[in-house]
Amino acid sequence: MFHMCWTSNKDDKVHYIQQMGYWYVVDECSNEVIRERGGSGTLSNCCSVEPVINCHFKDKPSIQRCDDSPNRDQNGKKFWPSE
């Protein structure tokens, strides 16, 4: 389990979890889809065996380089060092 209590909103929490490689919900399953299907047994279609990794910010920790992503903080520095 990985908890993001230090982030200011839910969108940032999801972005950071996706960027770190801890997200296992396929893109087709938005919060609305999950709420609609809740308890119906079809939620298993929303889970991925492999992490769903998406880059969002180049100045935040990530499991892979996110050099093409914008900074989250105004004067943020790249998380990954230059090659």
Walk me through this protein's architecture:
The chain has 83 residues and is mainly α. The chain has one domain. Helix content is 22%, strand content 0%. The protein has 2 helices and no strands. It has helices at 10-20, 31-37. It is elongated, with a radius of gyration of 15 Å.
Helix content: 10-25%
Low-confidence stretches: none
What is the straight-line distance between the termini? 32 Å
Number of strands: 0
Shape: elongated
Q: What order do the helices and strands follow? A: HH
Structural class: mainly alpha
Domain count: the total is 1
| Rg on CA atoms, Å | 15 Å
Helix count, DSSP H or I runs of 4 or more residues: 2
Largest sheet: none
* Mean pLDDT over the residues: 84
Approximately what portion of the residues adopt beta-strand conformation? Answer: under 5%
Keywords:
22% helix; mainly alpha; 83 residues; single chain
Give a short synopsis of this structure.
This protein is mainly alpha-helical and 83 residues long.
Note the topology.
Elements lengths: L9 H11 L10 H7 L46
